[in-house]
């Protein structure tokens, strides 16, 4: 059904103006003032509201076998949660174990999403082993439209790869024009520090951060930069949590390494004291890299504002507090790592970023949508508002006041890391390719409307 969004204030990464938006089929076809709706069109009155391009979360985990358990969400729950939170496109990490066949793993991850997603989605292909068969398999996966890789420098013995494999992955990525996203922490140092802390009887969740201090992350970024410099590959550092890692990335960029930097919403609003909560509650806040001392948060906001950080994702990885985080009581190294936030990212970034005066509206759109679209081959269908773009739109009510809570969330997890937190502004109406999926902040759409987005290689030269 055609769709008219009237009287809203359109905000993109570089423009802000009042206009009506006319959408036919799946795309935006006209932008103008005083557009009239023919009979039968859906009409949304956006008076007093902001209209943003659909937000993109370039780093989520939905199907995730990890640390002896499985992440709790399915595409049914995570995609609805994403939409209610204003996110219209998810990019999920395919994370095979080292012994898995990469092609079989890729098909398995795709099968988890097919027909079950309410929002659009794509994948980054995890490279967790590199042998003689790997290049041909990865070429097929890139040919299928998954034009980005993921490597882990951490998680020794699970997803982590060694330096020879890292070099070969980056060299192949360079040849295929594919960007490589990377979890940067030095796995060997973590293993040593974990052993040492456990031997000293330091077993609670509050010891997770000391087992992976900022220097461990900065070394990971520096390490990746060296390999990117020598291979010419383009790299994207995921979930950057601290100032030393930002400095390592800045130094790499200054010497010409093609590196982009992501942070994730938990680091911008939570800190190490959350992981120190008594009675094992700190386990809810265990993720890697860990939540840091509060001063790192200020460094992240400054870097976001100045352009040193390119994107804000979530690293959504949901594990129940009661059954799953519990696995690590008595040994913090066994607490499944992850903080769920796909439903909260946009509302928190708006509340603590825009409404708090830390970033402006254009930067907000850029870091939460446009840059991810550009980097991962989705622009300009996604990431902006212009004729010809997909009609993925967020009609946002800046005057809404609400509260985050596990009791009201769409996510299939038994806690919210942001329980009771006030929210200033929310996604009121959300469309995906012209179809209204959220209205009045509630999911009202089709659970199978989401489509896999096939992306071309764009990182040549
Ligand atoms: O703690 C985290 N980050 N869990 C998800 C896996 C990863 O490292 O991205
Ligand atoms: Zn990671
Ligand atoms: Zn992740």
Task: Explain the overall architecture.
This protein is α/β, with parallel strands linked by helices and 461 residues long. The protein is built from eleven helices and 19 strands. It has helices spanning 75-84, 102-113, 134-143, 163-176, 187-199, 214-231, 243-254, 265-269, 294-306, 345-354, 361-375, and strands at residues 3-11, 16-24, 27-32, 42-45, 50-53, 55-60, 65-66, 69-70, 87-94, 120-126, 148-152, 179-183, 235-237, 259-264, 311-313, 393-403, 422-432, 435-439, 442-443. Strands 1, 2, 3, 4, 5, 16, 17, 18 and 19 form a nine-stranded mixed β-sheet that branches. Strands 6-9-10-11-12-13-14-15 form an eight-stranded parallel β-sheet. A two-stranded antiparallel ribbon has the order 7-8. Helix 4 (163-176) packs across helix 6 (214-231) and helix 6 runs parallel beside helix 7. The protein starts with a strand and ends in an 18-residue tail after the last strand. N-(aminocarbonyl)-beta-alanine (URP) binds next to loops.
Topology:
Layout: E1 3-11, E2 16-24, E3 27-32, E4 42-45, E5 50-53, E6 55-60, E7 65-66, E8 69-70, H1 75-84, E9 87-94, H2 102-113, E10 120-126, H3 134-143, E11 148-152, H4 163-176, E12 179-183, H5 187-199, H6 214-231, E13 235-237, H7 243-254, E14 259-264, H8 265-269, H9 294-306, E15 311-313, H10 345-354, H11 361-375, E16 393-403, E17 422-432, E18 435-439, E19 442-443
Parallel strand pairs: 1-4, 1-5, 6-9, 9-10, 10-11, 11-12, 12-13, 13-14, 14-15
Antiparallel strand pairs: 1-2, 2-3, 5-16, 7-8, 16-17, 17-18, 18-19
Helix pairs in contact: 4-6, 6-7
